[in-house]
Amino acid sequence: MNTTTRCRKYAWSASALALLAMPALAQMHPERIAELEEQLTALTEQLGELKAELDEAKDNGSIETIRKDVEANKVAIRATQSSTAFTEATSVTHLSGYASADYVSVEDGPAAFVANFNPMFHFLYDNKILWEAELEVEVEENGDTNIGLEYTTVDWFLNDNLTLVAGKFLSPIGNFRQNLHPSWINKLPSAPAGFGHDGAAPISEVGLQIRGGNPVGNNGRITYAAYVGNGPKIEGEDGEIHAVEAEGFASDPDDEKVFGGRVAFLPMPNLEFAVSGATGDVAVVENDGADLEGDPKRGYTVFGFDANYRWSNLDLRGEFVSQEVDAAALSVAPENTKWETWYAQAAYRFGGDSNWEGVVRYTDFKSPHADDTQEQLALGVNYLIAPSAMLKFGYESNEGEPGEITDADRWIVQIAFGY
After folding, report:
1. pTM of the prediction?
2. Which terminus, N or C, of the chain has the lesser number of Cβ atoms within 10 Å?
3. Is CATH 2.40.160.10 correct for 99-115+172-418?
């Protein structure tokens, strides 16, 4: 009990005792009157002592301290009320993302610094529907800033095990693109060969997707995704298919949709096997840099398999993707074309509490174009600054067409941070 409170208490007690005692004094025994007079005298003395303490508190600043404590308590109460209001809100906005800065040194070539920033936005309403989006902001070689839309979707939670996704989403073919490609998650400072633009693995799609998962047995789980989308854009050049651009387009010139999905089985939480694929009809819609209409349709198929296993400080994973476009005799690019890539990766964290980690990855990418084909051995040493921040030292031994960039070895130092 502080000085001010005690002072008020004793003052009130003394006053009340005096007021109550006076009307009945004449009817009381002389000894009772003497007893009450002693109590009143004692209360008066205590009141005087408390008044002195109060005056002293005013002089040395204790009253100001008490006032600050009261204000702090008010702030704490308001913060608690605000927190309660947040958890009970029907809508929540959230900002996250990641960023990285690289230093890349290419064999027999220039060395340069590179930087990019990927903000992610989320808006959840009533735990029923979520809007999410990711932008990719990067500095180009000429100094311009390039902004791309990685994905933007509206996710409707139909129940605890099923979600309807609409918009532009990362391709569920394989595992790297949809789950591992962010720089603060990827254990090496580069993507495996064939998992980037014009590679074997699709990057994104525009359409509708169903995603979900269900428990199996005591510890197992199955997850699944199925989608329908506009499909890739096929480019022709010099009488052959130059590239399959599967980066998510808001148009469908060949008016043919692509259907695909992925099914994964986790017999235990740290082990996963998955198969994925897509199929549909496509057509060459761009030839020698110009738009093309009326090219015959042909079949398009993608197949993927991926697996990962984690035991103690050891992380093992691998992935295979094959992408093929069938032949069409009357097309400007009549022959069938196929891309394949696979990688195997092992990462080990040294010691239970160590911040150091070693990584090795082998990739074999086969393209119908010799200047894109590449075998790569990547080695890395990482220092974990924080759970979502990593400093990476990487070296790539590359083997490709002599004289091409795919044949040049590289050193890469990267700092990546997710928030």
Report:
1. 0.77
2. N
3. yes
